[in-house]
Amino acid sequence: MNFKKSSTFLSCIVFLLLPSLITSQTCQKSCGNIPIKYPFGTGPGCGDPRFQPYVICNNQQLSFKTHTGCYPVTSIDYNYQVMYISDPSMSTCACTQPSKGFSLDANAPFSFHDDTVFALLDCETDSSPIYKSNGGVNSTFPMCDSQGAPVCSLLYSCQAISRLNLPISTCCVYTPVDLGPSFEMDLEKLHCSSYSALYGFSGQELNPQAWKYGVALKYKFNFNNDYPDMCANCEKSNGVCGYGGPYSSFVCNCPSGFNTTNDCFLGSSWSNSYKNVPWQTGLLLIYALGWLVVLASM
């Protein structure tokens, strides 16, 4: 084989190998402006498989999905393990609108943060089951928080709600902490037209316009709530924690696009720093160089 043909052939081999060497990372580290860390992921095979059906990244919009709808995720506090979502159909001090309610799926690995407060608005006091007394046949626990009267009165003072001229008795503060980690807030069955949710007062308890409207959800990594060591090692090597195989076993998705069962680099320390070399990419490079040597000697 002459030198010119050999060079051309070598160029073709390198060109064919390049896509394998520069494959992009499948699991992304952000969705829109929200950083994505374990246990969440940006698609199938990313994050924890228990969370993947409920937290979805689509067109750079992170959303939380339940059987009642799909809700934008506004932020995630990874230090305290709290995810904040909004519901475009709920009422706030700025506007009031009809809603069907909000519920968690029974198997979802989430629970309501204790700071979350739900206020049911425009409820029919003569027919709504939430107004039955504790001694009633169908009542096993109070669904209205007797301490929530100030929230109702302040919400009903908002211009958007005050225009409806609703009596304060048609508002009921609905506390999820009394109802367990999963509950069904079906406003049609409760005979209420809308609801408002908030998770903070921003230090202005008497100013409903400044309240933090939305739903705060808690999550846990596992039963003991321990951050998995394999995932921590994966992230230290610039990888993203994911899963794969028939049993959804742990994998580390590397910047090269490949998955490993450990981490993304060969841990060789040079001057107190790491030389990050994805091992699959290293094998491909060795393979490619081997072919180049053989071809060059022909």
Describe the structure.
The chain has 298 residues and is an alpha+beta fold. Helices cover 20% and strands 26% of the residues. It contains 6 helices and 19 strands. It has a 6-stranded antiparallel beta sheet, with no helix packed on it. The chain has a 4-stranded antiparallel beta sheet with strand order 10-9-12-13. It has a 3-stranded antiparallel beta sheet with strand order 15-16-17. A hairpin with a 4-residue loop joins strand 5 and strand 6. Helix 1 packs antiparallel against helix 6. It is elongated. The chain starts with a helix and ends with a helix.
Helix-strand layout with pairing:
Elements: H1 3-21, E1 30-31, E2 34-35, E3 55-58, E4 61-66, E5 69-77, E6 82-85, E7 101-103, E8 110-112, E9 117-123, H2 149-156, H3 159-162, E10 172-174, E11 184-186, H4 187-190, E12 192-200, E13 212-213, E14 215-219, H5 229-236, E15 240-244, E16 249-253, E17 259-260, E18 269-270, E19 273-274, H6 279-296
Antiparallel strand pairs: 1-2, 3-4, 4-5, 5-6, 6-14, 7-11, 8-14, 9-10, 9-12, 12-13, 15-16, 16-17, 18-19
